[in-house]
Design goal:
Number of helices of chain B: 9
Strand order of the largest sheet of chain B: 9-1-11-10
Shape of chain A: globular
Strand content of chain B: 15-25%
Number of strands of chain A: 2
CATH architecture of chain B: 2-Layer Sandwich
Structural class of chain B: alpha+beta
Number of domains of chain B: 1
Largest interface: A-B, 43 and 43 residues
Largest sheet of chain A: 2 strands, antiparallel
Helix content of chain A: 55-70%
Radius of gyration of chain B: 18 Å
Low-confidence stretches of chain B: 1-28, 42-61
Number of strands of chain B: 11
CATH topology of chain B: Alpha-Beta Plaits
Strand content of chain A: under 5%
Number of domains of chain A: 2
Oligomer: heterodimer
Radius of gyration of chain A: 23 Å
Mean pLDDT of chain B: 84
CATH class of chain B: Alpha Beta
Helix content of chain B: 25-40%
Order of helices and strands of chain A: EHHHHHHHHHHHHHEHHH
Largest sheet of chain B: 4 strands, mixed
Distance between the termini of chain B: 39 Å
Chain lengths: 410, 276
């Protein structure tokens, strides 16, 4: 039995939402965050993101495929999980998940198809036998690569990105809403919650892309484009500043108001969550990457490519820790605090094995990378060298692409 | 049907002193008493309602023909001045509803309050009563507060259930359909009173039902039946002259965490400001 400091309602000593509910917003955060990056290119024509646009979209797709798994694994009656979609109770914030998830999945699958259509056709033409049939099915029977068709593809991508961006934001903002709309829990109940979730999703998405981009560049023996890296670092800095500011503002308001709940929340933060909140979320994952990224952004001109990449990657890895800690502190922290507002339970230690254990969480985190690898084998994430298929049309559509596509001097 | 339903109600206060005496005894005495009480009241039902009562007893979850849920609207009244912290109600609830160890559907809190400090505890939900306590401050008052699901009219637990497994019956009880519940735990998080939990065996949400299987047969909830001091009272707001209805209408009653606007249907008399 967990130890209690103060007085907790007898049923409040159990942590009902386990590590899986920490993983759920962590994973959907990557979905939304990487979609934001891909949208910066596809929707807002930020050419500096071209080198990672496809990687970002594939990442969003890979993480989306596993996004519902932690929820499913957490359910006491997993076989009844589909009830949420089949017979939703619409006053529940959770009932929206099925609808939002399926809608976003649909949009993303369509967008992926349009973005990779040229490769699918090329591969269908190149391969033989079963493989050819497979790609033919993926191509949905159309092999039209005429400039008009390519132009239509690009228009479709733009429209889908236009629908996908709000959908991705909704999907993740909604995760924050699930917590923010629980008036019973003062640590969760704030309208800032969806906003903080969304901003930290952007942080985790961009941070992951910085790391993945380096890894992919190394694997594919391609140079890391300096403008792209600087841009990623700048946006990461921007979203990290916003996230940390809002996370602190939430506390400061609570503390300044001297609200009833502040007494217990201040105890929660300084005792039970001292490591995960103060050390990890605020210092190691917050302050240090803020400084590292400030160096990358403010001293960009003076930095050697290698130094920039190293600093940005270090900051990105710390940001990934920051966002995980934030998810942990919200989900688990909120349950260490009793609704009696008089007591805290001893820290929650997740099981190692088992459906909701640490190993499962690691598997869930690794799975999207496996999917990404398969995706790369099947469709190829890197744009084919020379841009022989989509290049000209893209250039015609957006203009000025050549300038951004090349490796820039630092 | 109403007067027949009343029958066991009348016998409840008489049963209370017996239960008080048993409160300090071993659990088996309590269990014996409870099963006896159930059997006796079941007998009363058969006596009064005739053979049809047997049919009614077979359908506890859906109100049968004999019972019309439109005719009732239940409410619960707790007079904190009367509670002696014996734990009978917690034990009765556990026995009646097979509440798993480590969880409670109802519990008792002990408050020891002084001008500088206060102390609250509820060892095992108060199931074995309360051991003597020394506090490090000058205590000026001390009292017990029984707690349970408030069967709120505007309850967040029903609102957040993604599949509609949590619902409120027409006679006012907030219930969980164990066959629909997916065990997501959202209702557990949404309840401000900590009255729900995920049952470790069924992996679905579980909570106080006001002993719905009893009240639809005209009995009182187990906790009310065994309360030796009349702290816990159960009444029907649709019945003229009901003592609980009278108290709610005429006395100064309080509710738990009124600022959350959940409209609890458990009302408290003499509630102290320390209680949340």
């Amino acid at each position: 039995m967990p130890e209690i400091t103060g007085y907790a309602f007898p049923n409040d000593v159990h942590v009902t939402w386990s590590l899986m509910i920490v993983m759920y917003p962590y994973i959907t955060g990557f979905v939304a965050g990487s979609f934001i990056v891909t949208s910066l290119y596809h929707l807002f024509d930020r050419q500096e993101f071209k080198p990672v646009a496809r990687l970002a979209m594939a990442t969003s797709f890979a993480f989306l495929l596993v996004a519902s798994l932690p929820l499913q694994l957490h359910l006491g009656q997993p076989q009844r999980g589909p009830f949420v979609i089949v017979t939703p109770h619409f006053t529940s914030a959770m009932a929206g998940f099925g609808i939002l998830y399926s809608f976003y999945l649909m949009v993303l699958v369509l967008e992926v198809w349009f973005v990779w259509r040229q490769e699918i056709i090329d591969r269908a033409r190149r391969s033989r036998g079963l493989l050819r049939a497979f790609y033919a099915v993926l191509a949905l029977g159309t092999y039209d690569q005429s400039p008009e068709a390519v132009e239509i593809d690009h228009r479709a991508i733009k429209i889908l990105a236009g629908i996908g961006l709000p959908a991705a934001c909704m999907l993740h903002g909604y995760v924050g809403f699930i917590f923010g709309a629980i008036k019973a829990n003062p640590w969760w109940s704030t309208p800032l919650m969806p906003v903080i979730f969304l901003l930290s999703a952007a942080v985790s998405g961009i941070a992951l892309l910085i790391v993945l981009y380096q890894v992919f560049a190394r694997i594919n023996r391609r140079p890391v484009v300096a403008t792209c890296m600087s841009a990623l670092a700048s946006w990461l800095w921007f979203f990290l500043i916003l996230t940390i500011t809002l996370e602190l503002l939430e506390l400061i308001v609570m503390a300044y108001e001297k609200s009833e709940s502040w007494l217990i929340i201040s105890q929660l933060l300084t005792t039970r969550l001292e490591f995960s909140y103060v050390t990890m979320q605020m210092i190691v994952g917050g302050l240090i990457p803020l400084i590292l990224l400030a160096v990358v952004v403010l001293m960009n001109r003076y930095l050697h490519d290698r130094v920039r990449n190293t600093l940005a990657t270090a900051a990105a890895l710390l940001c990934l820790l920051q966002v995980f800690s934030m998810r942990w502190n919200i989900v688990i922290g909120g349950q260490l605090l009793s609704k009696s507002l008089r007591g805290l339970r001893s820290p929650y230690e997740p099981e190692i094995f088992g459906r909701e254990g640490v190993l499962m969480a690691i598997a869930l985190f690794v799975a999207p990378f496996v999917i990404l690898w398969v995706f790369d084998r099947v469709l190829g994430i890197e744009e084919p060298a020379g841009d022989e298929t989509s290049g000209p049309a893209r250039a015609a559509g957006a203009g000025g692409e050549g300038a951004a596509g090349g490796v820039h001097p630092a | 049907m109403d007067p027949k339903i009343d029958e066991p109600h009348v016998s409840a206060p008489e049963a209370a002193p017996a239960s008080a005496a048993a409160a300090t005894g071993p659990g088996s005495t309590r269990r014996d008493f409870l099963s006896l009480a159930i059997r006796l009241s079941g007998g009363a039902m058969v006596l009064v309602a005739g053979g049809s009562a047997l049919g009614g007893g077979a359908a506890p979850k859906a109100p049968g023909e004999a019972y019309d849920w439109e005719e009732h609207l239940y409410a619960y009244l707790i007079d904190t001045d009367k509670c002696i912290g014996c734990g009978s109600c917690v034990r009765a609830c556990k026995t009646e509803n097979q509440v798993p160890d480590g969880f409670v559907r109802t519990w008792i809190e002990r408050y020891v309050v002084g001008m500088e400090d206060s102390h609250v505890d509820s060892p095992n939900g108060g199931i074995d009563g309360f051991p003597p306590l020394q506090v490090g401050f000058i205590a000026t008052k001390s009292f017990f507060v029984p707690k349970m699901c408030n069967h709120c009219r505007a309850t967040p637990c029903i609102q957040v259930c993604p599949v509609g497994a949590s619902y409120r019956t027409k006679d006012g009880a907030v219930m969980v359909d164990g066959d629909r519940c997916i065990g997501c735990g959202y209702c557990v998080q949404a309840c401000p009173y900590g009255s729900r939990f995920i049952h470790p065996a069924t992996h679905t949400a579980s909570k106080c039902t006001w002993c719905y299987h009893r009240i639809t047969k005209g009995l009182k909830p187990a906790c009310v039946t065994v309360c030796p001091t009349g702290t816990r009272q159960f009444g029907d707001l649709k019945r003229e002259g009901d003592p609980v209805r009278h108290a709610i209408e005429h006395d100064h009653v309080a509710i738990m965490q009124g600022h959350l606007l959940t409209e609890p249907q458990c009302f408290y008399l003499h509630l102290d400001k320390e209680v949340r």
